[in-house]
């Protein structure tokens, strides 16, 4: 599909919408709200809140749709977590946590600002062009109602756009012949992915599995002996992102260049405020 947008405009907009969505995973508000419904383990909470829109799914579905988690780590918590709290209960707790975290990170004055309502309207308009076909996480979330408060409507739209892009991204990774650990290793090597410490602590992979994936990438000429991407590795990761852009073009093309630029401007201010307020843990991203 040929785009009338400036190069990578959709990706830049997504890269700002994504933290609007994902900050709640790291917020103490999520732990508190999930604890009120009986879910206290952080991994169980993550699997539950992200998978709940799909219903009482099992470990296989979560592993398939989340992609970069070890099946055994998922199976420690799913489907048992649904015996503690049903998906509808989890979704309600998630919305309360998102509300609390956004109010804390942005402040009440900004929450009620017209800019938030404008950003919500633009982001929701973009979702009108998203498609459910072969996008299971997006499709599940697209069946949920849009919250009435503008800041929650913006978060909901950011979630739809994030999962829409993410579902397409997984297809690209498969086409690039990158398995879950290889995808993580190569992304970390760009300096933009989660650090190995964070990956190993949260995704369930062992250091031996990380090292084995690194060796496979070296055999393909994508990683050098120091763990840095080779020229071929840099080229592959660029093509992965470019192909993801192509699969995710429709919502931003639907919005149009001027509105995409405006949504990017609005979300830049919001995300900057959130980052300043400590929305994400230190040391989460990088090669260390």
Q: Overview of this structure, please?
A:
This protein is mainly α and 288 residues long. It has one domain (9-276). Helices cover 68% and strands 0% of the residues. Helix 1 crosses helix 11 (150-175) and helix 11 crosses helix 15 (231-247). The mean pLDDT is 96.
Brief characterization of the structure:
The chain is mostly helical.
Which characteristics define this entry?
mainly alpha; 17 helices; SalK; HTH_67; 288 residues
Question: Topology of this protein?
Answer:
Blueprint: H1 9-22, H2 28-36, H3 42-51, H4 59-66, H5 71-75, H6 81-84, H7 87-106, H8 108-111, H9 114-127, H10 136-142, H11 150-175, H12 180-189, H13 196-203, H14 207-219, H15 231-247, H16 249-255, H17 257-276
* Overall average residue pLDDT: 96
Please tally the helical runs, counting DSSP H or I stretches of 4 or more residues.
17
Q: Give the N-terminus to C-terminus distance in angstroms.
A: 38 Å
Structural class: mainly alpha
Q: How much of the residues is beta strand, in percent?
A: under 5%
Question: What would the principal axes of the Cα set say about the shape?
Answer: globular
- Counting DSSP E segments of at least 2 residues, the number of strands comes to 0
What letter string, H or E per element, gives the SSE order?
HHHHHHHHHHHHHHHHH
Helix content: 55-70%
> Uncertain runs with pLDDT below 50, 5 residues or more?
none
Our count of domains comes out at 1
Largest sheet: none
- Estimated radius of gyration: 19 Å
């Amino acid at each position: 599909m040929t785009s009338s947008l400036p190069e990578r405009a959709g990706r830049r907009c997504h890269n700002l919408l994504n933290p609007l969505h994902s900050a709640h995973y790291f917020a103490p508000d999520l732990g508190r709200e999930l604890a009120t419904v009986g879910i206290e383990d952080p991994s169980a909470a993550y699997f539950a809140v992200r998978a709940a829109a799909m219903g009482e799914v099992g470990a296989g579905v979560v592993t398939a749709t989340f992609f970069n988690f070890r099946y055994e780590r998922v199976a420690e918590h799913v489907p048992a977590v649904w015996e503690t709290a049903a998906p509808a209960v989890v979704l309600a707790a998630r919305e309360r946590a998102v509300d609390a975290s956004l109010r804390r990170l942005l402040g009440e004055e900004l929450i009620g600002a017209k800019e938030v309502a404008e950003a919500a309207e633009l982001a929701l308009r973009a979702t009108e062009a998203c498609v459910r076909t072969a996008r299971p996480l997006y499709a599940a979330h697209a069946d949920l109602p849009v919250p009435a408060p503008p800041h929650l409507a913006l978060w909901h739209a950011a979630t739809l756009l994030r999962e829409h892009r993410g579902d397409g991204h997984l297809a690209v990774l498969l086409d690039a012949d990158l398995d879950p650990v290889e995808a993580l290793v190569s992304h970390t090597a760009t300096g933009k992915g989660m650090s190995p410490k964070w990956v190993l602590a949260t995704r369930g992979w062992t250091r031996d599995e990380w090292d084995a994936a690194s060796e496979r990438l070296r055999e393909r000429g994508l990683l050098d002996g120091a763990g840095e991407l080779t020229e071929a590795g840099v080229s592959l990761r660029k093509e992965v992102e470019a192909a993801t852009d192509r699969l995710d073009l429709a919502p931003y093309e639907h919005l149009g260049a001027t509105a995409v630029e405006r949504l990017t401007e609005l979300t830049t201010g919001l995300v900057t405020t959130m980052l300043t307020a400590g929305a994400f843990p230190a040391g989460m991203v990088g090669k260390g």
